[in-house]
Amino acid sequence: MNTVPDGVVQHILSLLSNARDIASCTCVSKRWKDSIPYLPSLYFPRSAFDAIPASVADATITRMVISAVRLEELVIYCPFSSSSLASWLSLRSRSLRFLELRMDTAADKSAAIPNRLDCIGVANGLETLKLWGVSLVTSPSWGCFQRLRTLEIIGATLRDDALKDAVHACPNLAELALLGCDGVGSVVIELERLEKCRLDFLGPGNCSLSLSSPRLAALEIQGFSWIRVNGNHRLRSLCIAKNTGRVYKVDLGRLADLEYLSLRGVQWSWNAISSVLQCASEVKHLVMKIEFCGDFDTLQPFPEVDLVEFFNNHLKLRKFEIHGAMFASLCQKNSLKNLDSRFSIPCLEEVLITVRSPLNAEQKLNTLESLVQYSAKLRKMVIRISQMKNCHDAADDFFEEICKFKYLNFDTVRIE
Amino acid sequence: MDMEDDTVQVRENSAEDTEMLELPKDPAEVKASEFIKGESSKEIPVESQQPELPENVVLQSLEKEEFIIKLAVGQQSEIIKNAILDGRGENPVPLLNVSAPILAKAIEFWKRHIDAAEGEDLTEWDKAFLGDLSQEVLFELAAAANYMESKSLLDCTCKFIADIIKEMKVEEVRDYFGIECDFTEEEERKMREDNAWAFEQ
Question: Model confidence over A203-223: pLDDT tens digits?
Fold first, then answer.
């Protein structure tokens, strides 16, 4: 007979968190049943109680939460009632550190229960809180989550004040993510310890963001038209996107530590683009994917960008992804006027370019050739030709030139 | 050996040290796996007060067979690490509960993990390593990891076993572990009823 010492059985069981597995193991033997109280985490998947009436589901969760006297992690994806949630959190408020709840069922949304999230406040030892599909339209009465380091809210309906108060209840946050949310107009965040922030707001509306966090190192945002980040930060990685609508203004103070920069969107004001590029002089990896510029409804191509000036302002650039309107702006009549033998692109190793139109083939080739010629360290250039209309005469010429260019630089250039 | 975990502290309202907060542990309730949970603050110091730290350590199995390993390899077991730290120069370190073939397997695991490059993912290797073992050896290795207080090996073996039993029905788990059901008929019936939802496929 294989005997496994108690310590090992307990350790094996402590690695289980799926409530089904735990319930199953409870039935194995008395010794196993006795180990259940020490389990640190419980996870109830979406379909855990599919065939079971709601009241029985709640009662089962209650029973398991009662058994787990040192519960640290509670994850509930299946439907549950607010009153039951309040009792579970009260019971385990002392030990609970990690709470993840999915509250997006039809029942959740239709019931007009004011602030179902209030009861979460009792679990004031939480270090991580993740909420899916909630409705945060009135300020939750949470008191203060002193220990909360990570807050994630996904697919939620928010309101400015409610969001502000919710964040205010978490003064020591290090990581904040608000993804796939809507309903806000103006987001104001002031957090001393925030290091990583991801905000993704849906809808074409014009949202504004004001963020002040001295330890901020990574910021990834989508959906804002006006962006202001207090210059006292430590940003190393920055992604700004706006999938619909326009970006009007971006004010970030300095970007001296920035290593990774990604700018994406349909339309940005050229001032916004140039101000960010100007500040990001130390950047090592740059992704440009903005389709048009312009301050009003008219979509406009980028103005001309001087190649020499651009690379002299970004000397540390190692990897450059050029999509959208950026490449065309580097291929204008005077883009290469400052080229001379003293010029060099010292660090560039990888370039990825999307070419959208075959027009202006000669200038485009000139720019590509210049990039190869002046970059001593260039290892890889990938030219992506996307959605080009083949029926144009110019397209044939362009392809011919591009292929010639590729053969001349076969060890570096690749076409996709 | 007294194994009090001296890194446990309870601080209220100290936002700065949120990582250090633990529930107060009942010292009477001492489970081997819990030692391993706590961070070991006793790394072998570079400038130690002991005269010299040996470059190699000799381990002695149940059958008194000896294995010579590098210090870094042996440090993955708290028992071995403490034997060296204590400076008693207890060489060879006796591991009387571990048989030679099992100790050899443990050493193989530790060696691979010490040799791993920074950030290298050893999940596939771990799975293949454990998958090759018979169930008997797997259980003995887990027990040895528990005895020798090797967190990395214990976590790995237990996770592997946990993944196996996740898909199993109650009877299959009992078979796998060679466990007899010790519930009375009445108790068994009640348990099944309470947990019926878990048995729905």
Answer: 777 899 999 999 999 999 999
Using a cut of 0.90, tell me whether the model's pTM lies above it.
no
Strand B56-60 to strand A413-415: parallel, antiparallel, or no bridges (unpaired)?
unpaired
Is the Cβ pair B183, A14 closer than 8 Å? no
- CB-count burial class (<10 Å; 0-12, 13-18, 19+) for A16: buried
Handedness of CA B66, B72, B75, B77 (dihedral sign): negative
Is-contact A45 B186, C-beta < 8 A?
A: no
SS (H, E, C) A132-146: ECCEECCCCCCCCCC
ipTM beyond cut 0.85: no
What torsion, rounded to 10 degrees, do the Cα atoms A202, A207, A211, A217 define?
40
* Residues of chain B positioned with their CB less than 8 A from the CB of A14: 33
Q: For residues A140 and A162, is the Cβ–Cβ distance under 8 A?
A: yes
Instruction: Name B98's Cβ contacts closer than 8 Å, sequence gap at least 6.
Output: B61, B62, B106, B144, B147, B148
Each residue of A12-36: pLDDT tens digit? 998 998 998 999 898 998 888 888 8
Give the minimum alpha-carbon distance from A77 to chain B in angstroms, rounded to a whole number: 15
**Lookup: tokens for B15:** 């936002």
Q: Do A127 and B18 touch (CB under 8 A)?
A: yes
Q: Which of 35-74 (B) contact A at CB < 8 A? A: 36
**A59: chain B residues, CB-CB within 8 Å:** none
Closest listed residue to residue A343, CA positions, set A381, A380, A309: A309
A56 neighbourhood in chain B, CB within 8 Å: 197
User: Do the chains contact at B170 and A1, CB–CB below 8 Å?
Assistant: no
Residues 147-206 of A with CB under 8 A from B: 147, 149, 171-172
Q: Which of A308, A300, A345, A348 is nearest to A324 (CA)?
A: A300
Read out DSSP for A260-321?
Answer: EEEEEEEEE-HHHHHHHHHH-TT-SEEEEEEEEE-SSSS-BPPPP--HHHHHHH-TT--EEE
Among the partner residues B158, B177, B194, nearest to A11 by beta-carbon distance: B158
Q: pLDDT digit string (tens) for A47-99?
A: 888 888 888 899 999 999 999 999 999 999 998 988 899 999 999 999 999 99
Q: Which residues of A touch B170 (CB under 8 A)?
A: 24-25, 27-28
Contact at 8 Å (CB) between A356 and A387?
A: yes
- Kindly list the residues from chain B whose CB atom is less than 8 angstroms away from the CB atom of residue A31: 179, 182
The predicted-structure confidence for A220-246, as pLDDT tens digits, reads as follows: 999 999 999 999 999 999 999 999 999
